[in-house]
């Protein structure tokens, strides 16, 4: 197929004020230019737990020595299975120093989900917290893993046989004064290994390089787009195992701004934190904005410090957008569109916003919109599947490398178009993923669990609209002959085997047959028409 080059859009020239080098080197140099008492992270819940520049710098160096002593080297993977904390990113930064890929994992995952993730990542070392330790040890035992497990940021040490990273860090023999991050090819070296379901199927490991993340941070902090300035305070609500949470933390580290971290969303604490620390940058998903538009709590707090609200993860309705503008007239709301595979944002609204647009391409990104049937590129204002290419695109998936079309473009599965000025608009999704509160829920994963229920003959899962969550999973179930079961039985069966974000909040509907095409593929559009 020949490409119509006039129908391929290019992002702007890379003029980001971030050195073209490894993230480790950039962060190391930025930390060295700060005062040792400068605050990096604050725990929103305790308010007393604070990470300062000097502590971060010295502890991250010690982690490098710990990695060496444990045989973890450049190119290896370490996994972190923990809730958000002010210290979470300290071992991550040390990994960046050494060219080690860091694999943040959802601590709410079930045993089966964790086993699948660890089989993909193959970590040489696993960090976890007290709240997840028992699950991790069960996974390790069932998989017969010899991978060491260390407690990170542990106060109670619930298991006396598991070592705490803090204790081992005190045994370091590294020469801290002469330490410098390793030199390596930042364009090719994997920095983060995150999990995404891509457009279909079960979770895959997304290999994001130092270059991918540099471009994402550059786009989100550039004056024309994210407009991060000295003195800004970021509020981190998204979990670090999600690209959104990791990216916000990296923005704070590289721009030398303060990040206040929540380990989970608590409404009253959320408002108190914004008011007390004068949060200026709020990174949100539509479900959070919906909460803001409806809760009476908002009248009890001063949120005037917020200058920008960035919204991603799901489409934002016009009605909700206008409601937030009424509540926060001094804040600029910027929609962005992205995915894990490009380290976050592909597009973001700039200083020439167009209503309902998700903005323009960032540096290092090329895009086209194609006819999903003929694969031919489409011109402006024609709806098709959005595809991406360029330096911002991931290195690839683990375990598969099959993710590009014949011209090297990643097919997003999202339906949209661009206008004559290069502004993008998202109108629908071709892909099968369900977006629940910004989280990706693959129907195939839920179907594989439901099909193990003894009475189930076949099933198909789709997402249905939900005002608070964006979408919730609904299962269509066909039962075997002469068998019976209730909706609750199947809902409970799935809930016991899956993390909380993926449960069947849309319920179960019983049908005689699951509609499929000649290739045996579930016809999800037909299922949605039954709703």
Topology:
Layout: E1 9-10, H1 23-32, E2 39-43, E3 50-52, H2 53-69, E4 77-81, H3 89-98, E5 101-105, H4 111-121, E6 125-128, H5 130-143, E7 149-151, H6 165-169, E8 190-196, E9 204-209, H7 210-221, E10 233-236, H8 243-255, E11 258-261, H9 267-277, E12 281-284, H10 286-294, E13 308-311, H11 318-327, E14 332-339, E15 344-348, E16 360-361, E17 366-370, E18 384-389, E19 396-398, E20 410-418, E21 424-429, E22 434-436, E23 439-441, H12 443-450, E24 456-466, E25 470-479, H13 487-495, E26 508-510, H14 524-530
Parallel strand pairs: 2-11, 4-5, 4-6, 6-7, 10-11, 10-12, 12-13, 13-14, 25-26
Antiparallel strand pairs: 1-17, 2-3, 8-9, 9-19, 14-15, 15-16, 17-18, 18-20, 20-21, 22-23, 24-25
Describe the structure.
- Helices cover 27% and strands 24% of the residues.
- With 531 residues, the protein is an alpha/beta fold.
- It has three domains: 22-33 and 50-185, Rossmann fold (3-Layer(aba) Sandwich); 233-429, ANL, N-terminal domain (Rossmann fold), CATH 3.40.50; 434-530, 2-Layer Sandwich (GMP Synthetase, Chain A, domain 3), CATH 3.30.300.30.
- It has a nine-stranded mixed beta sheet with strand order 3-2-11-10-12-13-14-15-16, with helices on both faces.
- The relative contact order is 0.11.
- The mean pLDDT is 91.
């Amino acid at each position: 197929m020949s490409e119509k080059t006039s129908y391929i859009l290019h992002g702007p020239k890379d003029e980001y004020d971030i050195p073209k080098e490894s993230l480790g080197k950039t962060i190391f140099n930025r930390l060295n230019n700060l005062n040792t008492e400068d605050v990096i992270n604050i725990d929103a819940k305790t308010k007393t737990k604070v990470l300062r520049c000097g502590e971060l710098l010295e502890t991250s160096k010690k982690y490098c020595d710990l990695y060496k002593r444990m045989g973890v080297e450049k190119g290896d993977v370490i996994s972190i299975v923990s809730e958000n904390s002010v210290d979470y990113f300290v071992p991550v930064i040390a990994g960046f120093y050494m060219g080690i890929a860091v694999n943040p994992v959802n601590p709410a995952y079930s045993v089966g989900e964790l086993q699948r993730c660890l089989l993909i990542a193959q970590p040489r070392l696993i960090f976890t917290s007290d709240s997840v330790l028992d699950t991790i040890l069960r996974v390790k035992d069932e998989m017969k893993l010899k991978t060491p497990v260390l407690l990170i940021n542990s106060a109670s040490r619930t298991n006396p046989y598991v070592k705490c990273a803090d204790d081992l860090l005190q045994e370091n023999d590294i020469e801290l004064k002469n330490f410098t991050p390793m030199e390596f090819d930042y364009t090719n070296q994997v920095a983060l290994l995150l999990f995404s379901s891509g457009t279909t199927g079960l979770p895959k490991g997304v290999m994001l390089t130092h270059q991918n993340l540099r471009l994402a941070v550059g786009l989100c902090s550039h004056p024309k787009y994210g407009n991060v300035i000295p003195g800004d305070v970021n509020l981190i609500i998204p979990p670090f195992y999600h690209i959104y949470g990791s990216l916000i933390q990296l923005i704070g580290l590289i721009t030398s701004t303060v990040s206040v971290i929540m380990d989970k969303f608590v409404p009253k604490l959320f408002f108190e934190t914004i008011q007390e620390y004068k949060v200026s940058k709020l990174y949100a998903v539509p479900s959070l904005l919906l909460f803001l538009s409806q809760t009476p709590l908002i009248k009890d707090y001063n949120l005037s410090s917020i200058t920008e609200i960035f919204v991603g993860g799901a489409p934002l309705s016009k009605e909700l957008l206008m409601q937030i503008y009424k509540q926060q007239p001094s804040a600029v709301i910027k929609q962005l569109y992205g995915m894990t595979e490009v380290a976050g944002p592909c597009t973001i609204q700039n200083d020439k916003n167009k209503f309902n647009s998700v903005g323009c391409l960032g540096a290092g990104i090329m895009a086209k919109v194609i006819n999903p049937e003929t694969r031919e590129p489409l011109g402006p204002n024609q709806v098709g599947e959005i595809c991406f290419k360029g330096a911002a695109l991931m290195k690839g998936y683990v375990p598969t490398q099959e993710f590009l079309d014949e011209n090297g473009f990643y097919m997003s599965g999202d339906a949209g178009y661009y206008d004559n000025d290069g502004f993008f608009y998202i109108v629908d999704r071709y892909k099968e993923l369900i977006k629940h509160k910004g989280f990706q829920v693959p129907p195939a994963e839920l179907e594989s669990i439901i099909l193990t229920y003894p009475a189930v003959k076949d099933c198909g899962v789709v997402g249905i609209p939900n005002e608070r969550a964006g979408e919730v999973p609904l299962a269509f179930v066909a039962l075997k002959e002469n068998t019976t079961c209730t909706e609750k039985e199947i809902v409970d069966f799935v809930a016991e085997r899956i993390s909380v974000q993926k449960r069947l909040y849309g319920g179960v509907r019983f049908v005689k047959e699951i509609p499929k095409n000649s290739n045996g593929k579930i016809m999800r559009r037909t299922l949605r028409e039954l709703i």
